[in-house]
Amino acid sequence: MLKNYFRIAWRNISRQKLNTILNVTGLAFGICACLVIYLINSYDLSFDRFHPDGDRIYRIVGEAQRENGEKIFLNAPLPQMAGFQTQIPGFDVTCGYFQYGGRTTIEESGKPDKNFSGDLDKGGIASIITGPSYFDIFSYHWLAGRPSGLDQPFRVVLTKSRAIRYFGNLPVNKMIGKAVIYDDSLKVTVSGIVDDWKENSDFAYTDFISIRTATHSFLRSRIPTEDWSNLGPHQSQAFIKLSKGSSAEKVDEAFAAYLNKNPVQHGPWTKIRMWLQPVADIHFTPEFH
């Protein structure tokens, strides 16, 4: 019986070759398109889904509007809002960082200097300037050192892959104390090594320079203060981890009440709005990229 079915099917295929080719080709393209769409969506949806307490991690973002209705996206709180985090309840940890991306030099006695760009292999900036609380929001496995090392000026924490690129296959404990030079003149000392993230992230930075370095070097002209809430918009990010029992909706309402009580103007942009953006949604924000 089954053999007869195959014979009948083959006869129909032989008699209608053109229709058969069109149908099979269409089916093949359809399957390929579905697979491509599935792979792209799976890849994009994998970004920043792995963070412990990820449901409590948010970026502070905003929107400024002119009187004519034109809008711009704000990556971080405006400088005029400095200190607002103490007036809005619901924050367990707060942290800001400034993207740096300076080129790197490693000096070796008796050998030519090794030079590296300030970019990641897959694109994007490799280094940021931040403080210890960054690691209270984004979790890393520490191989050497601890976050408190970033309390001091002229300190840097490296990921393992970056440290190996700089210093070769030394034991991680021997990398502590090594010097890294950014932009030919900013010399910092390695105070910690963390393991690399294996999952996809929009925050795959490899060099974490202490924010106190900014106030003790030429960077003070580029970064206005060591207060995370004063970092300039579009060059920085401000993140928070919500307190347990708090919610993004309550904080958004508190933002609105704060701005209503303390109006902020950003040049010609008069209408300011701030809110919390879940870390898992950031990959899909075109303005971020």
Summary, kept brief:
The protein is α+β, with helices and mostly antiparallel strands. 25% of the residues lie in helices and 27% in strands. Strands 1, 2, 3, 4, 5, 6, 7, 8, 9, 10, 11, 12 and 13 form a 13-stranded mixed β-sheet that branches.
Describe this structure in words.
This protein is α+β, with helices and mostly antiparallel strands. It contains six helices and 13 strands. Strands 1, 2, 3, 4, 5, 6, 7, 8, 9, 10, 11, 12 and 13 form a 13-stranded mixed sheet that branches. The protein is extended, with a radius of gyration of 26 Å. 29% of the residues are buried. The model has no long low-confidence stretch (mean pLDDT 85).
Write the layout of secondary structure elements.
Layout lengths: L1 H14 L1 H29 L11 E9 L5 E4 L16 E9 L4 E5 L2 E6 L10 E4 L3 H4 L4 E4 L9 E5 H8 L4 H4 L3 E4 L3 E9 L12 E4 L25 E7 L5 H14 L9 E8 L11
Parallel strand pairs: 6-11, 8-10
Antiparallel strand pairs: 1-2, 1-12, 1-13, 3-6, 3-12, 4-5, 4-9, 7-10, 8-11, 9-10
